[in-house]
Amino acid sequence: MPELQEDLQALADRRAAESTGDFDSVLTTAKTRKRRRTAGLTVIGAAAVVGAVAIVPTLRPASNTPVAESPVPTTAVVPPQVSTMPSAPKLPKAGLLGLKAAKSVTTLAGGQFVATFPDKQVRAVTFSLASASQPEKSLYTLVAKIPGDPTTPYAIRMTGEMGIAIPSFSSAGPYTLGMPKGLPAGSYRVCTLSGALLCGLVTVS
Question: Which residue ranges does UniProt annotate as crossing the membrane (predicted)?
Fold first, then answer.
């Protein structure tokens, strides 16, 4: 609208000057108005550019806003790691060891009993003794009666790694074994230490 008003005013001035014969004055006035209008447009254009430059930074994404190809936080729940405890080693399948008390084993620790081998195989003179509730943990090594050796039978307590002198005697049985003195009452597992595994239970009370 300001431009239209200026054009109309310049036309009116021109008409008035023509009527008075002052054509140069009319031309000078028109040029002056045109320069003012051009300058005004230039100032407006510069102001628009400055405003656009000022606005551009505000259009940039915030530093904490996810952009393309950036990792997006997830709310997925990570499943807990479950650790498995190794199960106790399985005992080898054992055959039946024939056990018969020579003396009352159920009433006195230190009593004797006889072990026989149903398969009639020849075996060493040694046996293992463990609690029936923890058969994988050997408590004693039992050395059976050896003909002509008055120190037998006897029991050797297992206290970790140790050197044990074991008589090199073998037979198809039967073997006479002695229970350790002071052994607590309970049920115990007796097994062969050579040949096919044979086991049996002895009760001490």
Answer: 39-59
Q: Does any domain span residue 138?
A: yes
Shared-domain flag, residues 103 and 55: no
In the chain, the largest separation of any two C-alpha atoms, in whole Å, equals 165
CA dist 84 and 162 (Å) reads 33
Q: Render pLDDT for 19-67 as a digit per residue (tens, 0 to 9).
A: 555 555 545 555 555 555 555 545 455 444 444 444 444 445 555 555 5
Separation CA 134–CA 42 (nearest Å): 101
Structural domain that includes position 45: 2-59
Look at residue 81 and tell me if it is in a domain.
no
Query: 87-117, pLDDT tens digit by residue?
Result: 655 666 778 998 887 555 666 677 889 999 9
Counting the structural domains of the chain, the total is 2
pTM greater than 0.85 (yes/no):
no
How far is the C-alpha of 11 from the C-alpha of 74, rounded, in Å?
Answer: 72
CA–CA dist 122, 194 (Å, integer): 9
Whole-angstrom distance, CA of residue 129 vs CA of residue 181 = 13
CA distance 176 to 113: 6
Q: Tokens 């059976």 — which residue?
A: 144
Q: How many CB atoms lie within 10 A of CB 157?
A: 10
